[in-house]
């Protein structure tokens, strides 16, 4: 047995890729003026999720949230098909509540959110019955909360970076986090701003080439109050996010241009210049009451939440000129305002109840039950015409049992959900408004889940999971209006008649010491929502469709390796008292995905990620990340001609002033290899070659400063890294309780 333990220890490299020496995190304890603070693990593998700590990792938190997310091993993020983690489509949550946006709108939202405002990200690969069945394949929960203390604490975070392609561009973020608690209540205020200049070059076959200069401005504010009512607790939260973006696009290509003199469309080579404006405002308010009992494992939570999100998009054309191809005749159109003028308004209200208590079953167990009612209203408008009115009502309840028997852990649950989806779509046809009802979805469905985990030895587990889920089309996929750049030959539309996707998810996984793992999963989907891009003549069409059936196979493995294994015997390594924050190590990740779609021959692709930490002289820590995704492979209705990921990032970090000041300098995509080039494989129409290049190579400086206080006890509370929806973290901003 000792040999087995030593071998697994070598493979699992138990000592690395963490920032604490013990496996069981505990809360901060204060005894007679002495504060004992546990630090957090950088990454942690749990039976149903992977947890990434952003707050202590400069290589992740030195830009915006989207840039940090793209560095997570196993995650694929593209403009054409959204986000996937280990082969599973992600439903994105913010502090335990779904954002209800995907695609370009999601990217814009995450770009406008500073990464240093994020505490951690939980990717829940096996959502249990207590999570809405609409979570689909997996959930990425972005958690921004901090704990409130019995004294005022303040932390400032700032970031500056620049890129220099055809011209110099700057990006800045600033945020301040304030925490305090008195005898009556605790409070938190986290606010900040960002300004970002960026570039995007795109090529859409021979029909369109464009260069876009982008300027993004945003601010956010998150506030929280918590009142202790005996053992019970009342939490009040209000968050606001605002983004105001300008895009200036120079484009050229081949299109059918309207000839005013001859009153017909003619093929022409054109040049044009356009400006687009986007204004998004998102507000969220949540009230949570937590009832607690003498048995700390017995809990009853009530929560009411309301979200309102408004979006405006407009595009003006300054000029359009060129030559008709048949006779070379020159033309120049003077331009026009409001080529596009689109608005949307989303409102979501929900009320939920969650209850859990221990039960005497086998060697011990737990039962959880609850319910949720949610109402979503979504309206869109184009040039004054309200062209979509969408309503959804969801009522659900769940029951889940957890039990332990010797070395086995069992989970068995089910969630029942009833959906009532309806709406009206309108369009302007030759001055006449044409109205029709949307395809309704009024169904009651049952979603079971089951898992079993077996302890092979101390901290080494094998687990099997199954769940059935549903994914409702996001509002950005339903939106019939274009909210991106529109050229003379591009048609970008949502599809208000999209149907929900039903998933059957299976997974087998072996994990060791919370860090090393190997797993295989398959997701079988019916009516999967996907994007298609096709060419018909001189026009490009970008649409959302349902795939009748498809499967996504995924194999993945993660292995942390301390460099000392190359120079020390195993017996000496086992005796070493490690502080992983002070050692040199490397974390290796590899994943293989294959998308099976009927009547489409897709090849699988590999994802590779290497993260290395080196401790340099003077206490300087160097972190290097390399990610790569193999080309010539199928990704939904696209074939990657170049790798989606092919970049090297390096961050140098040093702490000063008794660790109160953290200073980092960084370089992202040093070799300028990040580019997306794909060929579409549409079920109808002609294939299109697409290419997009961002100014991904950038350099910068980030600062994190814990402002000194006269109170000697004023150390920031440790955020419990592995806290879940069912655990009591004691924070003001709760992760979806």
Query: Count the strands?
Result: 39
Roughly what is the average pLDDT, rounded to an integer? 82
Rg calculated over all Cα atoms: 26 Å
Question: Gap between N and C termini, in Å?
Answer: 42 Å
Structural class: mainly beta
Q: What share of the residues does DSSP label as strand, in percent?
A: over 45%
Major beta-sheet overview: 22 strands, antiparallel, barrel
Structure description:
Strand 27 and strand 28 form a beta hairpin. The strands form three sheets. This protein has a 22-stranded antiparallel barrel. It is built from six helices and 39 strands. It has 737 residues and is mostly beta strands.
Please write out the topology.
Blueprint (H helix, E strand, L loop, with lengths): L1 H11 L16 E3 L2 E3 L6 E3 L3 E5 L4 H4 L3 H5 L5 E4 L3 E4 L2 E7 L2 E2 L4 H9 L8 E5 L13 E6 L9 E12 L3 E14 L3 E20 L3 E22 L2 E28 L4 E29 L6 E26 L5 E4 L2 E24 L5 E18 L2 E21 L2 E22 L2 E6 L3 E17 L2 E12 L3 H4 L11 E3 L8 E12 L3 E21 L2 E24 L7 H6 L9 E13 L7 E11 L5 E9 L3 E3 L2 E3 L5 E11 L4 E8 L7 E5 L8 E6 L3 E9 L31
Parallel strand pairs: 7-10, 26-29
Antiparallel strand pairs: 1-2, 3-4, 4-9, 5-6, 6-7, 7-8, 9-10, 11-12, 11-39, 12-13, 13-14, 13-38, 14-15, 15-16, 16-17, 17-18, 17-19, 19-20, 20-21, 21-22, 22-23, 22-24, 24-25, 25-27, 27-28, 28-29, 29-30, 30-31, 31-32, 32-35, 33-34, 34-37, 35-36, 36-39, 37-38
Question: Briefly, what is this?
Answer:
With 737 residues, the protein is mainly beta.
